[in-house]
From TrEMBL:
<dbReference type="InterPro" id="IPR005821">
    <property type="entry name" value="Ion_trans_dom"/>
</dbReference>
<feature type="domain" description="Ion transport">
    <location>
        <begin position="363"/>
        <end position="627"/>
    </location>
</feature>
<feature type="transmembrane region" description="Helical">
    <location>
        <begin position="512"/>
        <end position="531"/>
    </location>
</feature>
<dbReference type="InterPro" id="IPR027359">
    <property type="entry name" value="Volt_channel_dom_sf"/>
</dbReference>
<feature type="transmembrane region" description="Helical">
    <location>
        <begin position="12"/>
        <end position="31"/>
    </location>
</feature>
<dbReference type="GO" id="GO:0019722">
    <property type="term" value="P:calcium-mediated signaling"/>
</dbReference>
<feature type="transmembrane region" description="Helical">
    <location>
        <begin position="51"/>
        <end position="70"/>
    </location>
</feature>
<dbReference type="GO" id="GO:0097682">
    <property type="term" value="F:intracellularly phosphatidylinositol-3,5-bisphosphate-gated monatomic cation channel activity"/>
</dbReference>
<feature type="transmembrane region" description="Helical">
    <location>
        <begin position="140"/>
        <end position="162"/>
    </location>
</feature>
<dbReference type="Pfam" id="PF00520">
    <property type="entry name" value="Ion_trans"/>
</dbReference>
<dbReference type="GO" id="GO:0022832">
    <property type="term" value="F:voltage-gated channel activity"/>
</dbReference>
<feature type="transmembrane region" description="Helical">
    <location>
        <begin position="82"/>
        <end position="102"/>
    </location>
</feature>
<dbReference type="GO" id="GO:0015280">
    <property type="term" value="F:ligand-gated sodium channel activity"/>
</dbReference>
<feature type="transmembrane region" description="Helical">
    <location>
        <begin position="397"/>
        <end position="413"/>
    </location>
</feature>
<dbReference type="InterPro" id="IPR028798">
    <property type="entry name" value="TPC2"/>
</dbReference>
<feature type="transmembrane region" description="Helical">
    <location>
        <begin position="569"/>
        <end position="589"/>
    </location>
</feature>
<protein>
    <recommendedName>
        <fullName>Ion transport domain-containing protein</fullName>
    </recommendedName>
</protein>
């Protein structure tokens, strides 16, 4: 059940179930979501997506039933997530039956909002993240109440400072509201007062509009209350809860791992032929051959398996038996995610002069010189683009093309010398060499293409036509040269730590991106249910006035946001993205308040709170924790002796998982905790009680 084939098959089923949203009504199969140019959507016949959906639901139901059979009823009832999954499956099947009963005419399908639950329930790290968010909510709510009080007080103050003038009234023109107070003022003495009122009361008309105006202001870049106060308080609360919960969760995971290793030792010792012969037993332990067999057949990553075998091969004492302490020490290698690779040795040439050249190329100063050359190349590009931009990109004999030609020749010679001097194994061992080699090969190919079409840059009479093709080639060459400058990052400690933190974030995005996918999916479906086809476009026929002049400045229509709507799943995702990055999200607030009702504010504010205030702040907390751990490890690594630091790997350069971030702050479980778990385990029956041996 826990094998990779079953795991991948279940993930494929979940993926197919979720991808149906693009094909179900309203279908996203159209060239544009702009309601002004909408053509007839490609609609899937009734029963096609529903048939695929019910197959996926039944397969997931079979998975839950299989898990129930494997666990047993008593153990299954302890798993709240599995019980919840069973409830969601039941509701989904009932909702599916209702839809089929109405022959697909019933468009409000609750089951689509519940689908992302299956993504969470089958990811342990995502479940930890959800629980962390759940624990964070009480503290976040307290800050939210303070924020709401702050906005409410200033809403009342704003309405008192900018009241509606007496006799003023408002009228609605289409989807836009225009204040006509100024037109009702007849005396010049009231004109200035009218201008002040017109400016102020545009944002303080009603209590709800005033509150939303201040909330939008809070999210802008020029609002100190939001940027420097409330957002930082949210971050502090979420970071504190995130670190505390994950540390406790990973502490429990460490206990389970230590119990597993200790239980494995006891089972091997209990079933060992050598351990059963009490009269001839020389030393307590398990045969190394048995441990080697277990490692060989274990379902663990290859690099960890290699590290375990290497450690076992180095142990020759105790008559090829492992004591408890040795067994535990060996399997502590599983705690690391570092891929142990021994650095290949350089095969030195026999010739004395070649060996001296080989030593120079393998020295770190050779890389430093290459970094200086790369920086010089980029500086030349910057100067040429500043002084001769047009000639640089459109003339094959320009100074920049000639200089780049010389630099590319140096890059090619540099990589050939490196490959020859170090040997291919040592060359590919370092990722920086692979990066340099790939960039250099592409540069050489692009330069050959340029030379074959336009001739050598030094030629006074270039061949071919100076066309757009040359412009593209020159651009690509210069872009690749600038990317090659990234080779200097490992040479600068602070820059290397930051770069590795960013790389770790990309690799650790699995669970946090999963949370974003879940909330995006559910809110997109909910938005379709609430606001589908609410926004209308009324063609003005023969009117020659463009839309940007017919509508109020800054409105949804005047800004031509017609493609941003909830008419299909793909368009809904784009709208949610715009609101998450607070890109003119006040436009959506106002428009949907007009076409639907002011209750639509709740939907958009809930999305902003969940995506920006909670999930993205959690992501920021991950960045902070990752960077702090990377920086501390790099400082500790620098203080160690050089021989120790260079023996296996660069600590600051290896991939750090979420578990790695908290590993140093975790406490080793005591012997009593481990033995209590083993003796009370329902599936572990040993022939004799394990001795209490110090760890």
């Amino acid at each position: 059940y826990h094998g990779i084939p079953h795991f991948r098959f279940r993930n494929c089923v979940i993926f197919v179930l979720h991808i149906l949203a693009f094909f179900e009504f309203p279908s996203s199969l159209s060239w544009t979501s702009d309601i002004r140019h909408m053509e007839e959507r490609i609609s899937v016949p009734c029963g096609v997506t529903e048939g695929i959906e019910v197959i996926c639901l039944l397969l997931l139901l079979a998975d839950i039933i299989l898990m129930f059979w494997l666990m047993g009823r008593a153990e299954f009832m302890k798993k709240k997530w599995l019980i919840a999954a069973l409830v969601v499956l039941s509701l989904s099947l009932i909702d599916w039956a209702i839809s089929m009963g109405f022959q697909c005419t019933e468009t409000n399908r609750v089951r689509r909002i519940l689908r992302p639950f299956f993504i969470i329930v089958h990811s342990s790290l995502m479940k930890k993240t959800v629980k962390s968010l759940q624990r964070t909510l009480p503290e976040v709510v307290s800050v939210l109440l303070l924020l709401a009080l702050h906005l409410y007080v200033f809403t009342l103050v704003g309405m008192l400072l900018f009241p509606q003038p007496q006799g003023g009234h408002r009228k609605h023109t289409g989807n836009n509201t225009v204040d006509l107070t100024a037109s009702n003022q007849n005396s010049s003495s009231n004109a200035n007062q009218t201008d002040v009122h017109t400016t102020g009361n545009a944002y303080f008309t009603t209590l709800s509009d005033s509150f939303m105006s201040l909330l939008v202001l809070l999210t802008t870049a020029n609002n100190p209350d939001g940027n420097f106060c409330f957002m930082n308080m949210f971050l502090a609360v979420i970071y504190n809860q995130f670190r505390g919960y994950f540390q406790n969760s990973l502490q429990a995971s460490l206990l389970r791992r230590r119990v597993g290793v200790r239980a494995a030792y006891e089972v091997l010792r209990d079933h060992s032929t050598y351990a059963r012969i009490a009269t001839t037993q020389i030393r307590e332990g398990v045969p190394k051959s048995d441990v080697m067999t277990v490692v060989e057949h274990a379902n663990i990553p290859k690099y960890i398996k290699t590290a375990l075998k290497r450690d076992l091969d180095q142990r020759h004492d105790n008559y090829n038996h492992l004591t408890l302490a040795e067994f535990q020490k060996c399997f502590e290698l599983m705690d690391t995610e570092v891929k142990f690779r021994s650095k290949p040795e350089v095969r030195w040439f026999m010739n004395r002069h070649l060996r001296r050249l080989q030593f120079m190329i393998s020295h770190r100063y050779y890389n430093y010189f290459g970094n200086v050359v790369a920086i010089a190349n980029v500086i030349v590009i910057s100067v040429e683009l500043t002084t001769e931009y047009d000639r640089t990109l459109n003339d094959s004999t320009s100074s920049l093309n000639i200089v780049n030609f010389a630099f590319i020749i140096y890059y090619l010679v540099e990589q050939i010398l490196k490959f020859t001097a170090l040997g291919w194994k040592r060359y590919v061992y370092e990722k920086g060499n692979i990066y340099d080699g790939i960039i250099t090969i592409i540069l050489v190919v692009m330069e050959i293409i340029s030379i074959s079409i336009y001739g050598l840059p030094l030629s006074r009479h270039p061949r071919g036509d100076e066309s757009i093709t040359l412009w593209n080639v020159v651009r690509l060459i210069n872009i690749l040269i600038m990317f090659r400058l990234l080779r200097i990052i490992p040479s600068i400690k602070a820059m290397s730590v930051v770069a590795n933190t960013l790389i770790d974030l990309v690799r650790n995005l699995k669970s946090f991106a999963g949370i974003l996918i879940v909330i995006y999916y559910s809110f997109a479906i909910l938005g379709i249910e609430l606001f589908h086809d609410k926004i209308k476009y009324y063609d003005q026929g023969n009117s020659t006035t463009p839309d940007v002049l017919r509508y109020e400045c800054g409105s949804y229509q005047q800004l031509e946001y017609w493609a941003n709507n909830f008419n299909d799943f793909a368009a809904a995702i784009v709208v949610l993205w715009d609101v998450m990055v607070v890109n003119n999200w006040s436009i959506f607030l106002k428009e949907y308040a007009v076409v639907a009702s002011e209750w639509s504010y709740l939907y958009f504010v809930a999305w902003w709170l969940l995506s920006v205030v909670i999930v993205l702040q959690l992501f920021t907390a991950l960045i902070i924790e990752n960077f702090i751990m990377k920086w501390d490890k790099s400082i500790h690594h620098t203080s160690e002796p050089t021989t120790r630091r260079s023996s296996e790997f660069e600590e600051s350069g290896h991939f750090m998982t979420v578990h790695d971030m908290f590993r140093d702050s975790l406490a080793e479980p005591s012997e009593e905790q481990i033995m209590l778990q083993i003796t009370n385990h329902r599936y572990l029956n040993l022939q004799q009680t394990p001795p209490l041996t110090p760890h």
